[in-house]
Amino acid sequence: MRYVPPLAEWNAWLQLAFNRDYYTFLKVYQCVPQWCGTLYYKSRLVANRILCKIGMMKDQFGSDDHIYIQLATLLRSQIEHGHLQGKIPGIRDLAQQYSVNVKTANKAVSLLVSEGHLFRLRGKGTFVAEGVTDHDTHVRVGFIVTDIVNPYFAHLAQALQDIASEHNITVVVNTTHGSLDTLQQILDTHQKHQTRLLIVQGGVVRNNTHFELIASYGIPIVGMHTRNASIDDVWPDMRAGAQLATDHLIELRGSAIGYISGSDEPVEQTGRFQGYRDALVSKGYKVAMEYVAETDPTYRGGHTAVLDMIDRGHVPDAILFYNQFMAMGGMSALLSRGLNVPQDVAISSIDDSIDISQMLIPSTTIDFSAIDAAQQALQLCRRRLASPGAPPLHTRIAPSLIVRESSVMKTIPEGSLPESE
Question: Is the Cα torsion angle 28, 31, 37, 41 positive or negative in sign?
Answer without folding.
Answer: positive
